[in-house]
């Protein structure tokens, strides 16, 4: 497993992307809207992982709820695995709790989320990229 990305909830993804680019010295940024999750995302590429800045696109977005109750900040860490189905089965065998089933993410990925209670208060995504 490796860390695929770190996702941060922000109020304004354009402003946040500029500030992150400056702070980290990153030239390129990609933007993507994921309708199913109700977010617009700025993707900043690091050496072997990414930072994703997420702004809600609608009132019922889970990120909107997060920002309202907790403000801007770290939302989740994503771990990449080659075989998400097998990994979920293995983790469930260890008592790890999940939020929902494996579902399609952006760009042909498969994703699911691990309950923060299983990881000492950290929400984590498990993802597999299509081969
Ligand atoms: Co993510």
Describe what this molecule looks like in 3D.
With 131 residues, the protein is an alpha+beta fold. The chain has helices spanning 13-24, 62-70, 84-93, and strands at 2-9, 29-34, 39-45, 50-56, 73-80, 98-104, 110-114, 124-128. The protein has one domain (2-128): 2,3-Dihydroxybiphenyl 1,2-Dioxygenase, domain 1, CATH 3.10.180. The protein is 24% helix and 40% strand. The chain has an 8-stranded mixed sheet. It is globular and about 40 Å long. The model has no long low-confidence stretch (mean pLDDT 95). The structure holds cobalt (II) ion. The site of cobalt (II) ion (CO) has 6 residues, from β1 and β5.
Concise structural overview:
With 131 residues, this protein is α+β, with helices and mostly antiparallel strands.
Topology summary:
Layout: E1 2-9, H1 13-24, E2 29-34, E3 39-45, E4 50-56, H2 62-70, E5 73-80, H3 84-93, E6 98-104, E7 110-114, E8 124-128
Parallel strand pairs: 1-4, 5-8
Antiparallel strand pairs: 1-5, 2-3, 3-4, 6-7, 7-8
């Amino acid at each position: 497993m490796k860390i695929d990305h770190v996702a941060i909830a922000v109020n304004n993804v354009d402003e946040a992307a500029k500030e992150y680019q400056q702070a980290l010295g990153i030239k390129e940024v990609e933007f993507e809207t994921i309708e199913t999750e109700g977010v617009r995302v700025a993707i900043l590429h690091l050496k072997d992982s990414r930072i994703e800045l997420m702004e809600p696109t609608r009132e019922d977005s889970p990120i909107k709820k997060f920002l309202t109750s907790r403000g801007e900040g770290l939302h989740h860490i994503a771990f990449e695995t080659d075989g998400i189905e097998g990994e979920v089965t293995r983790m469930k065998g260890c008592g790890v709790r999940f939020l929902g089933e494996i579902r399609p993410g952006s760009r042909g990925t498969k994703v699911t989320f691990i309950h923060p209670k299983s990881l000492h208060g950290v929400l984590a995504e498990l993802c597999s990229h299509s081969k």
